[in-house]
Design a protein that fits this description.
Ribosomal Protein S8, Chain: A, domain 1, seven-stranded mixed beta sheet, homodimer, two-stranded antiparallel sheet, alpha+beta
Chain lengths: 334, 334
Amino acid sequence: MKKSLLKSKLKQIFLKHKLSKNHAEICSNYLVKAEILDAKGHGLARLKMYCDRIKAKVINPKPKIKIKKISSSASYIDADNSIGFVSADIGIKQAIKNAKKTGIGLVAIKKSGHYGLSSFYAEQAVNNKLMVFCFTNAPAALAPHGAKKSLFGTNPICFGVPTGGVPFVFDASTSMINRGAIRRADKLGLKIPYGVALNKQGRITTNAKEALRGTQLPIAGFKGSGLAWMVDILSGVFTGSSHGGKTKDPFDDFSGPQNMGHLFITINPKIFIGSKFIKEIKKNIKLVKKLPKAKGFSNILYPGERRNKTYKKNLNKDISIPAKISKEMDELNA
Amino acid sequence: MKKSLLKSKLKQIFLKHKLSKNHAEICSNYLVKAEILDAKGHGLARLKMYCDRIKAKVINPKPKIKIKKISSSASYIDADNSIGFVSADIGIKQAIKNAKKTGIGLVAIKKSGHYGLSSFYAEQAVNNKLMVFCFTNAPAALAPHGAKKSLFGTNPICFGVPTGGVPFVFDASTSMINRGAIRRADKLGLKIPYGVALNKQGRITTNAKEALRGTQLPIAGFKGSGLAWMVDILSGVFTGSSHGGKTKDPFDDFSGPQNMGHLFITINPKIFIGSKFIKEIKKNIKLVKKLPKAKGFSNILYPGERRNKTYKKNLNKDISIPAKISKEMDELNA
């Protein structure tokens, strides 16, 4: 489907579900962006879920989002159970504003929901010449080190920095695989890789449905578990949102809003060394890229480069939509 | 050896190497702390190296450390090639002061050296009721994803948060094993675990000397490599220090000062939700601890708990000093 047509269909669907024109536009843009980036687990596969949650009154289509000024650097946002895209879009723009003013921005968001990819927001900060951390929690999916039951989300760590060229944006979950990828495999009846998840009995499984009912494995044992815990504290405890495994699964749990939390930290990269910063980061990247390559590698990419290549490659292509999702869209638009 | 005796011996050695009384005290305290924590790779095994570097004039025993105020939140420290312990000790105290005043502290340190464990500094911030990130770079030890040669250091990620009890301090290198542990194995003729390092030819080795000449493996492939890169940018590029593999190895490279960089970010955890924070973090930890345990685990520890247990266990014990290091100490004190 042509992107312009897809976007207008999505907007129609969101308007039908009572979002404002502005919020419908924001949500449609991010969903299409996920599709362009081949991040299918964060794209159209979630559309029906968002709409179902609005119908069930656990997402507020007309949120009254409040931004409280804590200091010139820090702002606290009550997202009033909006779709995560909307609150995170407002939040990152506030974090950019604060850092432009003081050199450092700190924005906490509570009462939010799934916001897609952290890199969506990190890139905006980087395009505004800022360094940035984005943290968000997520529904229980990972067993803490020493436990056999899920509690942490796949809790990504996202860090971005301007390079003078393609943004450096590291965005990686603390799990062996993204939960969205498992959901999509489940939806489309595909297998998941070996060694990334356990079933309910604690045995390795390649069945997506079993993995969703069991638990995912963190990267690097206690290290990945500790990083996931850090993200839970930063985006959950610190922001006054759900934490400790209490973030509701948006697909399975309609007993109330998700109350997810996000934290954005923005920093002017020039505050210490001035405009030399871009010269030095370019040198840094060059030094890594010219290293002798390992077997199977013709070049070394920095975080964000592959995403950027994918984006450019797909930008002028139509978006292919699986029949199942196409049918869902028709029903939602009926 | 009794800790008090060891401390006074170390002080004598540092005084003999022209450190001020205050700086000799700081360095002795951190070295003994590393020994108490069983972090032998950061303890006495490094003493001779520090003294050798002073003699070679690549560590400045009498640094003129300058603290430049960038804003009420941000400070920039030129450590004048001091021992890392000294500059980091000054740096974390400044970061604590800044966060107490504005809610957020950001301190960059350039022209520094190896500072021991990041947790030394994180704990000080946490004991002052602050959340904290500590980042430092280190000499080339890890191959970036796609390369077959070391460039990143083992670049630890350290995050601390007050809990109302034992500090939560996550402090983990982005490598499979700490470089200090490999150095110590080399020094004492021990083997290293299988699968954590490659020799010069790119093959897995358990020989510490071969591993030091080869490259260590990052956790979780491109994820660990990306995290190490993030730390290199934050502590190296951003602070105006060495980066991109240019940090000199303190043991092998006496061609000049290390010019290591550190970055401390301190945050008042109560700025958004007030004193509810401690209640919530306690709840968070409780929720994790009561999960059903995996095979082989009788309880779940949070990051920092094991370190705290070790500290308490060893606090009233004498410190055992290998003959080789004991001899070094006598020679340095002669």
